[in-house]
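[job 0412] stage=fold_complex status=start
inputs:
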Amino acid sequence: MSGERHEHELCSRRTSFGLGYRPWLRESTNFGDTDAAISNASDDPTQRSVTIRLVSLSPTRVRLDWVVPVLLPVVNLAVALLLSAVVVVLIGESPGRALRTLASGAFGDAESVGYTLYYATNFVFTGLAVAVAFHGGLFNIGAEGQAYIGGLCVALLCLGVGSWPTVLVVAVAIVIAAVGGAAWAFVPAWLQAHRGSHVVITTIMFNFIASSLMTYLLVNVLIKPGQQSPETREFEPSTWLPQLHDVVRWLGWEIGRSPLNLAFVFSLIAGLLVWFYLWHTRWGYELRAFGHNATAAVYAGISPASTVVTAMAISGALAGLMSLNEVMGVQHRLLLNMPGGAGFVGIAVALMGRNHPVGIVVAAILFGALYQGGSELSFDMPKLTRDMVVVIQGLIILVCGALEHALRSPVEALLRRPARVE
Amino acid sequence: MIADAFLIVTLLAAATVRGAAPLILAALGGLFAERSGVVDIGLEGKMLTAAFAAAATAAVTGSVWAGLAAGIAASVLFALMHGFACVTHHGNQVVSGMALNITVSGLTVVLGYAWFREGGQTPLLAPGARFGPVDLPGASALAPLPVIGSIYREVISGHNLLVYVAAAAVPIVAWLVYRTRFGLRLRAVGESPGAVDTAGVSVAATRYMALVGSGILCGLAGAYLSTAHHASFIRDMSAGKGYLALAALIFGQWRPLPTLGACLLFAFADAVQLRLQGTPLPLVGVVPVQLIQAIPYVLTVCLLAGVVGRAVAPRAIGVPYVKER
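[job 0412] stage=fold_complex status=done
writing structure:
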């Protein structure tokens, strides 16, 4: 019986990082119980077989708890990279050399690591955004547009305030970026909740609408006078988010110069808050319950409309916060196509990180490495453009998301085999 | 004045027909897949793959037919991958579709850049390597007639072959779905796969067949984009048309004729959008081009918000079928 329950738990993706409620955890760690079971084993053959199964599974179960959520993404990544290698071969380049260039470009020295983490900051925010929606059973493809609108709000704030102290600007910017992103997610969410229009299509449409709107604003309204390229003027330095190498130097250490800024710390805090919200508050519980089984959740008195709207608003807010890094932290102005595809990377990051903040941070750093290494790659191997990263990203979504069941069973079977032999 | 208005209306109608063709083909492809219970958000990606494969092959071989075949083959291949993930391995259908869309948006550019070195585009196609206008019989004979002549010449005749294929596809798909054994099974699989399975018909095989149908039609739609409408592949040239086709399918309540109507509506909005660019409107003046370009997307949201509440989707849509053990 407990074996079955355990299997069930493994199959439910959302709790597989082991931070949810796990009734079987006590059994698997307390070997005293199983010992007692052995000594109490009667002559009844069925009873005995059950007991033996328990014992033989126990050590494996402890291992599976941790290995599957860690090993499975690694296997997934390996398969996705293998498929990408096929593409590289098709182009006529060496996949091995490409991978080496990628790795040294991303982690070769302190500066590259800084760039990798700077990209990762964006992906932590968008990954969390997609994951929160996923937990509510919603697929938010609109993180791109939500981040864009969040960026607009931040840019307007930074352009508007003249001489506010930096702390105040940052505090207001956090709020306003979140509100901007949430507002852009609210309309599709409301339509899904009250009119039944599918959130996937409406968020895609809102990406297109945001893109048109922002092009209009940047070309016609916000553009710096007397300039050709559609971007705002540079903000006052008092509104810039402090660079991490400056903060660290102030603390007495020295790290390489990079665009890495305080937004990276904010993204980690956001991950912590999302974790607390999802697994340690009533609202997070309602959200997850709704995502698991909407019908049961409704019977339990959870309002579907408000859950959908809340989930999407939080998701949009997280996506909007991405603009802190990009607009306030690095560019110090609003550029055309500010999110640069980070909203779509967020989907891959959330799936690969198995919708858990810890996994998302790891996956985001991996994608940061792909982006940073990818730009090195296009210098070194001109045949491989940066679009190669988009291919890898799509393949990771395919392997981690759509084909998760395909790879899960072989991996689990492989791990369980020694226990059966015993 | 009246002649001017008439000319504008005729041109708008012609542009609507041209713009609707890929939407109709893709939406009918989606109809197959979704009627069988598989969400097909990958219409966009399949169109884009087909557009690239068709343009690349036509550019290399110089044959428009080889291009069309390659486009259909590439699109069917991706449809089968979607089936492998969603039907064989019970994966999430929306995630799988998005994965294919994203992969394709990168892959076409990477391959295009590596093979043709033109910044991700394919070389411009010679007139023989693309679908040219087809004059229907009698276009010149009817031309002297005052109204009918110009309508026939501008709106009905003179499009490329694939436009007529799209027009023919509507009754053909309707016949297939409503009047054949395959169609009955297709609809049954989308409503109640368990019942179909009990009757001894393979759910997986039926869904795979539906996906191949979707692949073929998306292949035609993609080939239309790059070898009929344009003369080369341009990065991200599907520009959301696959999503619009999906919205048209939902707006058309998963039925061929209403879907045709929805596609024509979207295409009309797009034709108006192109027409309005730079034209001053009464009361408002010249509306910025970027805002006008957003019209089809805003229209989609409004239509989905207004109508979809009442649309009845196939019952089993989005639910992977797991045979009882």
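[job 0412] summary: The first strand of chain B starts at residue 280 and ends at 281.
[job 0412] exit 0
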